[in-house]
Amino acid sequence: MTHSSSSSFATGRRLRAALALTGASLALIALAGCAPAGDTEPTASATAKPTSTATSEPTATAEPTATATASATPAPAAEGTAVDKSCDQVLTADDVYEINPNVSVDPGYSASSDTAVTATTYNGIACGWINNSSGEVIEVSVAMPNEALANTLKDAALAGGEVVPTYGSAPDVEGYFSAGTGTAQVFTGGYWVAVSSPAMIEPGDAERVMSTVLGNL
C-alpha cells in the first residue's frame, strides 16, 4: 500500500516536470514568433559605381594669326619744280613801262618778302623793280609747287589775308590778298604767283601787275 502511493507520487512529479518543461518550450517559441518586424535581415545597399569622368582631349590652340602691320604712308614732301621763266619774261620792259614809266629794274635786288624767299627756296624765281621816285620796291615771285606745298601756301594765304575773286575766275584762279604785308597771291595752272609792295594796301592795287604776269606765263 505504501509502495503504491510512493510510486504514484513519483509519477505525478515526473508528469508535472514534463508539463512545466513543455510550457517553457512553448513560451520560448511564442516569444520567438513575436519578434519585431524591423528585425529583418539588412538588405544590401546598392553602392553606385563611380561614374568615370570623361576627360576631353585638349583642344588644339589656334595659332595666332599674323597681324598685318600697315605701314603708314609718309605724307608727300613739299616740293617745287624749277620755273622755266626769267624775270624779263615775267614782266618785259614794255610791260613795266606800261604799268608805270617811273619804275625800272632794281639792280641791287635780293628777295626780301616772305613770298619771294619761299619761292626761291622751292626752285622758283624772284624779281624786283623799283619806283625811281619813292624808292619802293615791287617784288614779283613765281614758283611751281606740288600739291602738298600748294595746300600749305593756300592755307597760309587764307590765314593771313582774304580771298580775292577779281584776280581771275574760280576755280581756275584762286586769289588772295594780305593788306598787312601788301601781298597779292594767285594759284593757277600749277603756278604760284606773288606780287608784294609796301605801296599796295588793297587788292586792286596789285591787279594790273598780277594780270600782266599771269598773261606771260
Describe the protein's topology.
Layout: H1 2-33, E1 80-81, H2 87-90, H3 93-99, E2 103-105, H4 114-121, E3 125-131, E4 137-145, H5 147-160, E5 162-163, E6 174-178, E7 183-188, E8 191-196, H6 207-216
Antiparallel strand pairs: 1-4, 2-3, 3-4, 4-8, 5-6, 6-7, 7-8
GO molecular function: ATP binding
Signal peptide: 1-32
Protein name: Iron ABC transporter ATP-binding protein
Key features?
18% strand; ATP-binding; nucleotide-binding; single chain; 217 residues; Iron ABC transporter ATP-binding protein; globular; Protein Transport Mog1p, Chain A; 8-stranded antiparallel sheet
Question: Explain this structure to me?
Answer:
By secondary structure, this protein is an alpha+beta fold. It has a domain at 80-216: Protein Transport Mog1p, Chain A (3-Layer(aba) Sandwich). The chain has helices at residues 2-33, 87-90, 93-99, 114-121, 147-160, 207-216; strands spanning 80-81, 103-105, 125-131, 137-145, 162-163, 174-178, 183-188, 191-196. β7 (183-188) and β8 (191-196) form a beta hairpin. Residues 1-13 and 15-48 have low confidence and may be disordered.
The CATH architecture classification of the domain at 80-216 is 3-Layer(aba) Sandwich
**What percent strand?**
15-25%
User: Which regions contain 5 or more consecutive residues with pLDDT less than 50?
Assistant: 1-13, 15-48
Order of helices and strands: HEHHEHEEHEEEEH
Helical residue percent band: 25-40%
Major beta-sheet overview: 8 strands, antiparallel
Spatial shape: globular
